[in-house]
Amino acid sequence: MFAALVLFAGSPVLAQSAPAIVTPAPAPAVPMVIAHRGASGERPEHTRAAYDLAIDQGADVIEPDLVMSKDGVLVVRHENEISETTDVAARAEFADRRTTRTIDGSAVVGWFTEDFTLAELKTLRARERLPQLRPGNSAFDGTEPILTFEEVIDIARAGSARTGRTFGVAPELKHPTYFAGRGLEMTGPFVRVLRDQGLAGQDAAVPVMVQCFEVATLVHLEQEIDIPRIQLMAASGGPADQPEITYAAMATAEGLAQVATYATAIGVETTMIEPRGADGAIQAPTTLVADARTHGLKVIAWTFRAENVFLPLNDRRGSDPAGHGDLAAMLKRFYAYGVDAVFSDFPAQAVRAREP
Q: Signal peptide span per the entry (predicted)?
């Protein structure tokens, strides 16, 4: 609903020489449900079917991960290595493009979007990334093409027209430092798409909020366009463009104060809010939600999935890793913690769980 989308309106606290006066972020009236790559628990991720299903299930926002084609187009894939999510490995005409790349310090073998033009990528078909956990999704393998960023925006617009509700889009810019090193700078094309679509401000017909695990990209975008910016953080590691910093340090009071100079929200792994013991059982929640709000930052938690393998011990049901546990119980706890939004592969469950 639009009421949920406006939770992310407002400007961040800007860095300045004098001490800033920070207005704590208000608690959410209604937590926002962001469909993580669409309804990816029930359809192959990043496909039109996944996004349309998420819209019909009542999600407020749909999320595309953005990577780059060889000719500089923003395309929608979980990673730029696409053998897990497309049929590229079965395409003989592209066999010679299999290679090894070092991405954010790790060697990756496969086929990469930056070696294909958009026209070539459009010949590929999507497939389920987690077939062992989601065999039902494999029935849709080979039926849908790779989408562009513009096409996901069109899906959100069409969803709004179809349902009478306003849907937002939360793109994640993946590996911008890596792409820049290959001559494919991401922020320029991203800003151009938003300006061309009339979506570069907070009064846009399709609300947009941008997210990234890196820092410099969000700092740059803060100067370019007036949309919410989400600093993503994981329970381990740190931003690829600032290897001297860890996400753990960014989640401290000092770190959050710095994040608030360029971002409006943080998007954090669930265990940064609700830690788990060595056995996977939940432990007492941290103060991260309250700490972030003190610095004027909203808080989004990722990622809520129904399969036992992803759930804390307390919420698992049975011993089958692919079996579904009590995702609703986990979601209700996080809503009680005061998060402003959740990323979920199962948006229908996230919508139901926020009902009184």
A: 1-15
